[in-house]
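Sequence in, structure out. Go.
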Amino acid sequence: MTNAAIEKSTGHQPRARIALAAALASGPSHAYLFRGPRGAGKAAVARAFAAEILAAEAADPDDVRRRALIDPSPHPDLVWLSPRGAQHMVEEVRERVIRAASYRPFEGEKRVFVVEAAETMRDESQNALLKTLEEPPGFVHLILLTAEPSALLETIASRCQPIDFAPLPPQVVEASLDSHAPADERAAAARLSAGDLDRARFLLTDSGRALRAATHELGRAIEGGSPDTQRESASAEAPSIAPPAWRQLLAAAESEGEEAEATTRALLEDEAQAGVKRSAKDVADEAKRAARRRRTEVLDLALELGAAWYRDLAATAAGATEVVYNRDCLAELESSAAGLDPSRPRQAAELVQDTRRRLDLNVSEELALEALAFRLAAVLP
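Output:
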């Protein structure tokens, strides 16, 4: 038996590599929970692990591995379930996992079911899956992937063997980014990604760059002395007034949410035309959930980037520029940090993090951001 694909996919996840190699040597468990941050490589490792499970007793293991490693896989005994929008559809979990798990393998001796973003299963889906986890057929192996293990029911998590994934090191993320982006910008995206390769790639898109610019604008506005600083931009026809910086963050999040809603709606409508049973209300509700989820994700990312900006400002004021995340903005940071007490931007970063926690409690986003702007103005003269 070869574990080449697992060795490659777990190159920066030694704990996962050791645990999975041991599992293959002794015989894999019926259920696993791959838990760790987004972008840490859980999906690639799950595909490699599933390929080894399927190949273990196959007549032609190399062919089984080849087909199982293709994305999407044509192997009939590998079922991969990804959420179409903000959540897994209850019907899909029931049909493609729970009911399908009762069928014997089409080939070989094993069937593997992978549920990506398992935290997006509703409680109804998780409770329905519980019986399959408790009493699975001997030929069934389930792999749940999650970036938010706390969102899973304890009864689900306790019946799975945990495999932990750590954030990718910044240098690994940076090496995987588009080489066409400037080196300093790649370095900044890697350090701001918190080990999430997908996030780093997003920060190098037009939308990601706009989001970073909005968070930096918030910092400039506060440093300029007013939370509602408005700047005029010259136009060939007429001058325009930019909205307060905190409103730009809301607008960026709203735009990303609208794009997610449109994409999800189109995907679900295509599936409905292909024969998947969904009512117009189901499609609309799922698209709206996708919009809310993406809007919340982007707004939280914006605040995280804002906290990182003030962290960098404090580091620069303290003369520790080597630990700055925003490597492509070092000159601006040095200019803003001249003569600044490092404790002030550190306090500003804490205020931003406090606002992130407040938004977790479903307070008004607009009021929370406006309040943040005034609180920041009080600590950054």
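Check: Residues 205-228+241-379 form one domain. Residues 229-241 have pLDDT under 50 and may be disordered.
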